[in-house]
Amino acid sequence: MSSSTNDKTQRISVSLPVQLTAELDRMVVDGGYRNRSQAMAQMIRNTLLDHYEQSGSRVMAGTITLIYNEAQADLKTRLVNIQRHHIDSVISCLNVLLEKNYSLEVLLVQGPVDTLNKIVKEIRACKGVENCKLVLSSALMPPIHEKTGVHND
Fold first, then answer.
1. Which of 2, 34, 58, 135 has its CA 20 to 30 A from that of 117?
2. What pLDDT is attached to residue 90?
3. Are 60 and 138 spatial neighbours (Cβ–Cβ below 8 Å)?
């Protein structure tokens, strides 16, 4: 589902009510799209992502963004333990200090959607987490290490 300039395109025809077409044209201008086709393609990609988020076994990449209160006892330890427990899905972590003992943390994740949703539920269950959201992408990260031919000499 990833797009590149080398992807082949296929022309389709869509019939829309006049009012909806006018709203689409406003969205094209307001959204900075080149044309209706680009806007429609983006809407379809977004809808497919929403659909795939419901598919438990599909592997996807994305981010988990959370805001939490560092003053909450043992919260940072619990969050690290969740990440370690899911180390095969949590690729990287960025932490930014906010005002009043709050932190913003972004986890780069990749794995089956049901696993990523499980991580979010575990994080949300921690007392002191104010907000936690998963955003997914259809594009995947390439494998960092191949299982065959890897030597630790």
1. 2
2. 96
3. yes
**What is the model's pLDDT at position 3?**
47
What's CA 129's distance to the chain center, in Å? 19
3-state helix, strand, coil in the chain (%, to 5): 35, 25, 40
Q: CB-side exposure of 38: number of CA atoms within 13 Å? A: 11
CA 14 – CA 43 distance, rounded (Å): 14
Q: Which two tokens stand for residue 90?
A: 């949590």
Q: Average pLDDT of the chain? A: 88
DSSP 138: S
Mean pLDDT of the region 8-35? 91
Torsion of CA 101, 102, 107, 112, to 10 degrees: 120
pLDDT in tens, 105-152: 999 999 999 999 999 999 999 999 999 999 988 788 887 666 665 555
- Residue 61: the pLDDT is 92
Which tokens belong to 75? 């919260």
